[in-house]
Each structure stands twice: as structure tokens, then as C-alpha cells.
Amino acid sequence: MPPRMPASGGKAKKGTIKRLIKMVWKDHKLGVFLCLFFVVTMSASTICSPVFVGFITNCIDKYLALPHTPENAIAFWKEMTLYLSIMGGIYIEGIISAVVCNVAMAVVTQDFLNETRQAMFKHMETLPIRYFDTHKRGDIMSVYTNDIDTTRQIVRESLPGVFQTGVIVTSLIFVMLYYSLYLTIIVLFTTLVIFFTAKRIGAKSGKYFRRQQEKLGIVEGHIEEAINGLKVIKVFSHEDKSEDDFSKLNRALADDGVIANTAGNMLAPVIGNIGNLLYVVLAVVGAVFIIYSDNIHNISFSNQPVGVDTIVSFLMMARMFTNNVNNLSQQLSMIFLGSAGASRVFDLMDEVSEKDDGYVTLVNVKYRDDHTFYETSEPTRFFAWKHPHGNGTLTYTPLEGDIFLSDVDFAYNPPNLVLKRISLFARPGEKIAFVGATGAGKTTITNLINRFYDIEDGKIRYDGININKIKKSSLRKSLGIVLQDTNLFTGTVRENIRYGRLDATDQEVEEAARIANAYDFITRLPQGFDTMLSGDGSNLSQGQRQLLNIARAAIANVPVLILDEATSSIDTRTELLVQKGMDKIMEGRTTFVIAHRLSTVQNAQAIMVLDHGKIIERGTHNQLIDQKGVYYQLYTGAFELE
User: Averaged over 422-430, what is the pLDDT?
Assistant: First the structure.
């Protein structure tokens, strides 16, 4: 097998955020537009608050400077009522805007994540087997969980937050300039201090947040391996070692998390206290402006002297400004961190799909009385290869199961060949067996027949057609495979057997179970064929799970079977039952059998003995026994397969 690649790092690629924004905007324009519109209106209500506080302060100042007559009191309360009513309306508008914006963004985010997960899963199923050989399952799962969650945070929280903060900060600058240029300069200078402080602290936290994301994928991969191999851990009493390995990985994750969160949590109080210092400076400078207003000219668009109302409004705006700058720095840090997760999502979506240049397809055919056939769209038990030619003509070749390999070379990692000059043929209905030590290349040959991998050199023909010309979906539809490792899905027993042919009737499902000798044990289950299976059929024995896999292959009713050590995990008694069913399944079908138990391949028309990627012996059981070579030694126990 090819070596596994290390988990992808946490570094974001250039253009990730731009691509993310384009994806969200492409299919969710209305929702995004509503959100942005109400973000602006919500921001406007926020900015108006200090302005109207200034109006109210000015109103109070004017009233205090006038005689306290009933007429002045009535005028005062009329003006106050007007300001308070307007402020109340603005706050109500802000609440409505916030609700609508959040609902719109929640809908956009969840729809986007739903579509992204579907696109990821759909694309993942198009990837070649080689991708899953070189990437850990835990790391792939981390993309669907951790990385998609960081992407959600960007779309749902960070990007709208940056936009809202940007609107508020920009608007506040113009409003503050309206009141006083000097005070605005003080605020902007303090903002630069905040920016460089945030950059210095944020860079450190961002580095370790990315490392934390990477370590999290490694820890989850280790947990998955431990769950899958729990029986092995217990058999060898390696609980302490497994716990120690996990502790080291988890400690590394915690250490990076401590540094990242320490720096990240430090940012808010540091910036908050800089903002408090600004608050004091503005109050002092404002007091100086008021006291020496006759000697100091206030430069502003309003062309008004600095008064108490100006200072009150300005202090509120300054606090609002620094809070939003702080929020902006945090949101940008979250975007910086989240973009690493989004990059991993896009990495999966950008993986090159399995290449398929085939144009020969498998079609249903019906036979006439004169034994000729024609193509039909109706499901039938008979198939043919539909072969279009360059001159516009079509030819049909009956699907029979004739397999021919000629001088095939293959390498997982070129130029290191694992199969060398392999040549063999299997006539329709013949049983071909592969024996040899682990790593000799037995399973690799069958993986080439179904084009899980493509050969380096040579030819593989199926019913006389080069398999490179056959569409992979059609090729694999014509093959039935029973692997050593059972794979059952969450669902009923009936649904798991029907997985071999989705249009099979209940009667055909039960017949397939009888052929595989699985019917008796199935009917003894609590709900029979409707018994729910979960956890890869953990409530069944290994032998029972394999019998269901064999029944699944039986119902497929295909001309070629690949049995990759299908009985190796079944006890001797069960093997005898299965062998009868296997003989029924193999009857009239081309079958490739990989087996360590030589008793299961004695009736094969040809037995291939492989060693280090080469066929070193071939023949029937009796012929190989007479040769007294490697097969003879294996059969007589002179040495055993490893």
C-alpha cells in the first residue's frame, strides 16, 4: 500500500476568504443582501445613540441656564419628549433590524453549510481509492466536523461582524470629525496603538490556534483508531500504552491551546484598558477645551465650540469606537484562524476526481427467439457492452465474463513495481485462484480488474474490450466482490443484502440469503430480515456478517465474482455451510478467489502462485502437486503462508 500522507497543516491559502464570500453570495444573494441592509440600519441606530445623548445634554444645559418658569419647563419637556421618542424609535428599529439580520444570516449559514457538506460528500465519493490510502480517516472526518465548524463561524459571525464593525467605525470617524478634529486625532492615534498591540498579540495566538486545529485532527484520528482497534488493545492488555499515547497527543493539543487562548484572552483586557485610558485623556482634553474655549479654536465641520454636550457625546463615541476596533481585531483574528479550516474544506473539494475516460457502457438487453438480442431500458437479467465507434456505429458485445491480463505492470509509487509482467486469462465460468504470502500481490490484481488503480503497462481486456474503454461505473456494476473485511451499513438485514441490487424484490433477497446459507440464522434474529443493524453489524458474529456479504454478492447476479479471502474469518463449521453456497454463486460465473486455506481452491481451473509481484507457478491443483514446487510445499505444510 502507498504511504499515508501527514495531516494537512493549519495554514490558510491565499484567496480562501474571497472564494468563501463568492460561494455564499452566489446562491444566497437575497439573504446576504437582507443581512447587509439590516446591518447598516442596525449600525445607524447604534451611532445615533451618542448623538442624541449630546442633544439631551444640550437641552438640559439650556434649561438650567434659563429662568425656571412654567413656559420654559413646558418647552424643555416638549424637546426632551421629542428626543426620547426619536431615540425609542431608533432603538426599536435597531431591535427589529438585529432580529431580521440574525434570522436571515442563520438561514443563509445553515443552507450554505448543508450545500457545502453535500458537495464535499458527493465529491469525496468521486475520489480515487488512492486518496483514502494516503489520508487518515480521522483527518478526513476532522474536515467534516472541526473545519466545517470554523467555516460556519466565519460565515455566521465573523464576516457579518467585520462588516458591521466597519460600518460603525467609518461612520463614527465622520461624526467625530463633525464635532472636533483635535479629539478625533486623539482617538485615531489611540486606535493605531490598539491596532499594533492587537497585531502583536494576535499573531502569536493565530500561530498556536492553527497548530491547535491541526493537533485536534490528530487526536480525533487517534481516538478513531483506538475505537476500531479496541479489541486488539484489550487482547494484548495495552490499555496503559494506548492511554499513554493518547495522553501525549492530548497534552500537545492542550499546550498549544493554553498558549493560543492565553494570548487570545489577553487581547480584550489589554485593548479595553487602552480604551479606558483614552476615555480619561478625552475627558481631560475636553475640559481644557471648555475652560479655555476663548483661546482655543475648535476645528470641526459644525464650527461650534466644544461644550459639555460635545464631550459627553464624544466620550460615548470614543468608547464605542475603541470597543468596535477591539471587536474588529478579534473578528479578523477569527477569520484568520477560520480560514485555515476553510482551506482544508476547499482542499477536499479541490481533490482531483477519479479519472474516467471510458465510453463503453453496460446496458440491459432482451433476447429474441432466434437468440439475437436488443437493448432495452427495462431491468433484465441479461447485459451487453454498448460500444460506440468513431464512425458513428454501435456494436453490442454480450456480457460473459472473459478476463485477460497481458504483461501487466503496476506500482503504487512508481517506479517501485509491485506487480511485474502478470499474464493470465479466465474463461467465462472458470474459477481462478491466487495463493501466496501476504504482500505477494494477490489483492492488487483484483483491484486492477475493477480499476481501483490503473496499470503502469500492459493490457487488461474484459470480453475482448480494453477495460480503459469501459466506464468505471459500468465495469464495477458487472463485478461482485466479497472482501475479507465485512462492511455492513446502518439499516435492516434486508436492506444490507439488497445493497447488492437495489431493485431486488423481497423474494430475491430471501433467495440470496438461502444461497449464502444465511437464511436460517437471519430468521432466528429478533425481527428476522427486518432486524436493524448498526455499528457495522456489531450485534452479529464475524461469520454471520460475512454470510450477509456473500448474500449481497449473490443478489447482484453478475458474471464475475472476486472473493478476497471471503472465508478466512469464518470458523470451519460455518465454512462448510458457506462453501456450498459459494459453489452455487460461482456456478456459471468467472470467479477470482484469494485464499489462505488451500482447501477452498482445489477445484479451481487454474491456481496462480505469486511471490513478490510475480506468478511463479500456475496450473490445476493436481498439476501443481505433481510439480512438487512452492504450492506442494504449502499444501503439505513444508512451509506456511505468512
Answer: 91
Which pLDDT score, from 0 to 100, does residue 6 have?
39
DSSP label at residue 613:
T
pLDDT tens, position by position, 630-641: 898 888 875 555
DSSP symbols for 540-552: S-HHHHHHHHHHH
Largest CA distance in the chain: 128
Q: Per-residue confidence at 537, pLDDT binned at 50, 70, 90?
A: confident
- Which of 437-441, 584-588, 635-639 has the largest mean confidence? 437-441
Residue 382 and residue 404: Cα distance in Å, rounded?
22
Q: What backbone torsions phi and psi does residue 250 show, to the nearest 5 degrees?
A: -65, -35
Question: For residue 13, is it left (φ>0), alpha (ψ between -120 and 50) or beta?
Answer: beta
**Per-residue b or e along 59-93, where b marks 16 or more CB atoms closer than 10 Å to that residue's CB:** beeebeeeeeeeeeeeebeebeeebeeebeebeeb
Q: In a 3-state reduction of DSSP, which class is residue 371?
A: coil
Strand partners, 416: 413
Q: How deeply is 12 buried, as exposed, middle or buried, from its count of CB atoms within 10 A (0-12, 13-18, 19+)?
A: buried
**Residues 518, 584 contacting (CB under 8 angstroms):** no
**Whole-number pLDDT of residue 16:** 86
Sign of CA dihedral 283, 284, 285, 286: positive
**Which residues fall within 8 angstroms of residue 578, CB to CB, at 6 or more apart?**
516, 517, 543, 546, 547, 550, 566, 567, 570
Q: What is the mean pLDDT of residues 234-243?
A: 74
Instruction: Give me the pLDDT at residue 606, please.
Output: 93
Helix (H, G, I), strand (E, B) or coil at 25: helix
Alpha helices in 459-608 (DSSP H): 472-477, 493-498, 506-515, 519-523, 542-556, 572-586
| Pairwise CA distance, residues 257 & 211, whole Å | 9
